[in-house]
Amino acid sequence: MSQFTLNLIVIGASFALYIGIAIWARAGSTAEFYAANRGVGPVMNGMATAADWMSAASFISMAGLIAFTGYDNSTYLMGWTGGYVLLALLLAPYLRKFGKFTVPEFIGDRFYSSSARIIGVVCLLIVSITYVIGQMTGVGVTFSRYLEVSNSTGLWIGAALVFCYAVLGGMKGITYTQVAQYIVLITAYTIPAVFISLQLTGNFLPQLGLFGTHDASGLAFLSKLDQLVTDLGFRQYTGHHNSTLDMVLFTLALMIGTAGLPHVIIRFFTVPKVSDARKSAGWALVFIALLYTVAPAVGSMARFNLTATMWPGAETGETFSAEPITLEAIETSPDLEWMRRWQLTGLLNWEDKNGDGFIQYYNEANAANAPVAAIVEEQGLVGNELTTVNNDIMVLANPEIANLPGWVIAIVAAGGLAAALSTAAGLLLAISGAVSHDLIKGTLMPNISERGELNAARISMAVSILVATLLGLNPPGFAAQTVALAFGLAASSIFPVLMMGIFSKRVTKEGAIAGMIAGMLTTILYIFTYKGWFFIAGTNMLPDTPDAWMFGISPASFGTIGAVINFAVAFIVSRMTQKPPVHVQELVESIRVPRGAGGAIAH
Amino acid sequence: MSDRQSSNAYWQANLKIIYICIAIWAIVSYGFGIILRPMLAAIPIGGTDLGFWFAQQGSILIFIVLIFWYTARMNKIDAEHGVDE
């Protein structure tokens, strides 16, 4: 059976499963559509949250980001998990007690102002739409690679599938498909990792393999990897090379950004009780950690395998103990068929620059200071000959690099799609809730009937899917960049206003509005200053380099500063304005205690 | 009035646990994983040092323990102050 047929069967089966669940879990009321009737148990909600949360960026890109940077990108691992501690401690239980359907609704009620609610909607829309673009791009890439269709066809297929279960099922349909998608994606991520860990270190668990021994050389795996990459002139894998301040700020921006993402927060509205919201955050993190503790192993081992493919001597002995890989092997060897296949996608490429019949992979920028200098001299190298290695192939090509069987490759494809689709669905639900519940019912047509609102929710969901797909066809920047923007904005606008709404009775509507606007605008300005207006290349006012950054703070880390500005402005303005009315102070008292959250509705 | 006092005491108890958890959360990630890593460099673990382990694995495991510990403590405090569900 060909690889294509296998991919088709596995991906097709996973899609049939999602659609089956969607039909079984159709939503009949707005309570079902927005919050699955608050009848989802904490463990199941944790699993759905994990799928909702782990996007194409987590599944496809993160291990590659770690693979090529090493320790410095631990920021993603800590940042994208530590946010759940903040959610469990500072937001989820109180917002569940509040007991409404959307994040802007809380902002509007707590800050007794429909202007605040509208600003909340604007923040939510900017965050969620930038985030969903990245997911749709991920869907397109995965489809085009595995099902041999064009990028845009892949996108439309993905959009049609999300349309089926998100529009029909709302939160209820999305929750149960996300549970299925979690199982698919975690299986897909773990299986190749277990195989590769066994091959390299003899450890069944990748988490142990990462800190285990490289079997063939008898060295600690990470020492072996450090040695291999530094031999070739790359930075030491376990070393700390970037600014410590920026690393702290970036991790913090990811953590508070995670806690401020509306599509993650609304998942905690679906559990029956306040104590379940706390517990559910814990379970979500357990399920997330199953992937996040495997990712650094996948990254480092894929980096090792790729590099050792180029320098076969590294497998058993010294890096330069054997000749580098030949051009002939890359172009004809059945073991290296994956290189030829990935070359077609443009994510991998090579060029025999000096025409010696070998492809030498090394860091030409730093070759003079590394052991590879001798090879450069001896073999007459004129530059690195593995010219393109995209981060994303570290996960997608991983099973092929390690020569794993075809069905593993097919499962990885289904897993990548599950990760992107589950996140896209969660985001689309947050968007449609904000439009139909906050804008239409909350502001424009307060007297709309339950049926009318449900229809409005479905229509806004369909429109959101269309917009997301069109944006995915013409992404404004590459996926990771837009996701960085989403985190920066969630950190600087939504997280602070929610936290102040719960932990302070003194913050007023003027304070909250001024804080949100100040936090969001400074963050957007800072990002656009270095990345270009709306990410259009060439329109940046300052070069995007550490020397030009204010105090060495990168645009992606600025969300932390934006959050500080938000808090500061909100407190100062609140001091200068009239205290919130008594009923608002009572609302804050009431969300602080769990009792009376409204019982579960069985379904 | 007694209701208000009880809910104040409850809130203070909650805040105290939140402070403890946030302190641990910050120490394992920003502390051991990043800023204090050079101080932990002497403690080797599988080809690297303890700080690297905290940054890539240890902090995540401790985050999980923290949330479940917080949940258990809060369930107890909810019951003690009569605000459980």
Question: Which SSEs are present, and which pair or pack?
Answer:
The complex is a heterodimer of chains A (603) and B (85).
Chain A: H1 3-24, H2 30-35, H3 42-53, H4 56-69, H5 74-98, H6 103-110, H7 114-146, H8 151-201, H9 206-209, H10 221-231, H11 244-259, H12 262-265, H13 274-292, H14 295-310, H15 327-332, H16 337-345, E1 348-349, H17 372-379, E2 388-389, H18 393-396, H19 398-401, H20 406-444, H21 450-473, H22 479-503, H23 509-531, H24 558-576, H25 582-592
Chain B: H1 2-35, E1 44-45, E2 48-49, H2 50-80
Antiparallel strand pairs in B: 1-2
Helix pairs in contact in B: 1-2
Provide a brief overview of the structure.
The complex is a heterodimer of chains A (603) and B (85). Chain A is mainly alpha-helical. Chain A is 68% helix and 1% strand.
List keywords for this structure.
heterodimer; A: 603 residues; mainly alpha; Sodium/glucose cotransporter; two-stranded antiparallel ribbon; disordered C terminus; B: 85 residues; 2 strands; 5% strand; membrane (chain A); transmembrane helix (chain A); Na/solute_symporter_CS (chain A); ion transport (chain A)
